[in-house]
């Protein structure tokens, strides 16, 4: 039986709330268990072999292994990443960002998934280990293995970048006879069948295939911009250096092509690389390179390796800003075929950690166009176009519009008695919230106005419990907003 954790989707078109509940996916039966097993079973120090290394004990047969990166040293989603990595940020009430990428792998029958983590990774490591500890129905080899950063031996420092991380973990990644490695950012939101990418890669006999977006031609090319010909062969790679906005890395392939009529596409930061190619690039050609985007990929192109582009035409959001994260959440409240629609997609479902939460309790509330997570207590209030995360507590007379309430993981009564604070976790009575993001376990007092009344676009009031990014008020995790405050 397939266990999914789906939020409630409330639609005003229905006479009663439309609740999308758990379902069975007939095509790929899967069971995501929440097993209380020792963390050492799933989280390994990449310096030594964990014991046991795998939750499934048979020889490998899968030909592609995915390498997922769930974090980075610098984040564009701060303060949501103050205590968690980007991949661990909650989205659409019940999920975390990294669930989208792991689900793509599962739905594409990629059974061997390695998650390389380092910065603010405690929450991410716990989520991955608990959510994907037992993946049944995909064969006895299926697993997600978390590989934490390490220091030791000849490696005195932490991972210096994604390429450095892969290089230092090759001893583990090469344990099984896979033919290609699929390198994936873990904080992007999109739905892709990776088998199509793999088939295109093998058909073209490429050394490296880079996924590019045809739907984001005006997108800020944070992963570089590719010039390709009619056969999708990469002619040129151009990358803006973030630390030097006016400087660019630009390389052209040394291969002579008969067809040089270029088309331009932004890279998605997704790379399918042959096993021997990635080993040669990281250990022989560029043994000191730290980053795939700015060093390894341009280097491979300049050396004349066969680098192909795979054109992806679907929705893709790389979460480049707080505004992008906010809009992705808002789109999850729409029961329509726009944006990322896998939150409610039966054919390509989104998996996550099953929770043991009580049903959401709604008392005389008016809720329209909203997504409600499990375990909430919602009293007499009005909610419109909002995402209400798990365990949220909303008081009487509250008005919430076009906002994201990430929720909480504590109960009001017990938490109130332990803390001795006057303001419990949740949203206090008569509070109004509009165009805002309220992070986990925030304490919002009574009669608070979080409406950005002065229409400020950017503001740093973190000491007071909030910041403003792109006109969106972000109340930080564990913040306390006193009664009667106006933000």
Automatic annotation (TrEMBL):
Presence of keyword Transferase: yes
GO molecular function per UniProt: glucose-1-phosphate adenylyltransferase activity
GO biological process, alphabetically ordered: glycogen biosynthetic process
Domain Nucleotidyl transferase: start-end pairs: 66-334
Taxonomic superkingdom: Eukaryota
Keyword Plastid among UniProt keywords: no
PANTHER family: GLUCOSE-1-PHOSPHATE ADENYLYLTRANSFERASE-RELATED, INACTIVE GLUCOSE-1-PHOSPHATE ADENYLYLTRANSFERASE SMALL SUBUNIT 2, CHLOROPLASTIC
Family label: Belongs to the bacterial/plant glucose-1-phosphate adenylyltransferase family.
Full protein name: Inactive glucose-1-phosphate adenylyltransferase small subunit 2, chloroplastic isoform X3
Gene: LOC107405467
């Amino acid at each position: 039986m397939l266990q999914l954790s789906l939020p409630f989707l409330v639609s005003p078109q229905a006479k009663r709330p439309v609740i999308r509940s758990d379902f069975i996916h007939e095509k790929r039966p899967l069971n995501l268990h929440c097993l209380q097993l020792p963390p050492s079973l799933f989280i390994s120090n990449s310096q030594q072999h964990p014991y046991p290394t795998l939750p499934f004990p048979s020889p490998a047969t899968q030909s592609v292994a995915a390498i997922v990166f769930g974090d980075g040293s610098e984040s564009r989603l701060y303060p949501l990443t103050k205590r968690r990595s980007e991949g661990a940020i909650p989205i659409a009430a019940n999920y975390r960002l990294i669930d989208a990428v792991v689900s793509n792998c599962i739905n594409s029958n990629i059974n061997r998934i390695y998650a390389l983590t380092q910065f603010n990774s405690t929450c991410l490591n716990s989520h991955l280990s608990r959510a994907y500890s037992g993946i049944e129905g995909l064969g006895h080899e299926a697993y997600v293995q978390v590989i934490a950063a390490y220091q030791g031996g000849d490696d005195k420092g932490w991972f210096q970048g994604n390429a450095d991380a892969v290089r230092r973990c090759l001893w583990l990644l090469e344990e099984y006879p896979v033919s290609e490695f699929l390198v994936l950012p873990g904080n992007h939101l999109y739905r892709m069948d990776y088998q199509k990418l793999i088939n295109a890669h093998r058909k073209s006999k490429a050394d490296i295939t880079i996924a590019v977006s045809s739907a984001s031609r005006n997108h800020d090319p944070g992963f570089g911009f590719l010039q390709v010909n009619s056969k999708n062969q990469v002619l040129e790679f151009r990358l803006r250096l973030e630390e030097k906005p006016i400087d660019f890395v630009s390389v052209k392939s040394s291969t002579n092509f008969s067809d040089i009529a270029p088309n331009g596409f932004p890279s998605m930061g997704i790379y399918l690389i042959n096993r021997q190619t990635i080993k040669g690039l990281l250990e022989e050609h560029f043994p000191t390179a730290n980053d795939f985007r700015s060093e390894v990929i341009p280097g491979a192109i300049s050396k004349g390796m066969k680098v192909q582009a795979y054109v992806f035409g679907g929705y893709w959001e790389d979460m480049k800003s707080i505004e992008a994260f906010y809009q992705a959440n808002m789109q999850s409240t729409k029961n329509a075929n726009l944006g990322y629609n896998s939150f409610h997609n039966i054919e390509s479902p989104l998996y996550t950690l099953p929770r043991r939460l009580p049903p959401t309790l709604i008392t005389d509330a008016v809720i329209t166009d909203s997504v409600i997570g499990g375990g909430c207590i919602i009293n007499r209030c009005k909610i419109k176009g909002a995402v209400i995360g798990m365990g949220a507590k909303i008081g009487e007379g509250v008005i919430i519009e076009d906002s994201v309430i990430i929720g909480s993981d504590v109960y009001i009564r017990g938490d109130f008695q332990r803390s001795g604070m006057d303001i419990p976790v949740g949203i206090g009575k008569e509070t109004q919230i509009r165009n805002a993001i309220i992070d986990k376990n925030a304490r919002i007092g009574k009669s608070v106005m979080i409406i950005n009344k002065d229409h400020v676009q950017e503001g740093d009031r973190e000491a007071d419990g909030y910041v403003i990014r792109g006109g969106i008020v972000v109340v930080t995790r564990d913040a306390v907003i006193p009664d009667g405050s106006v933000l």
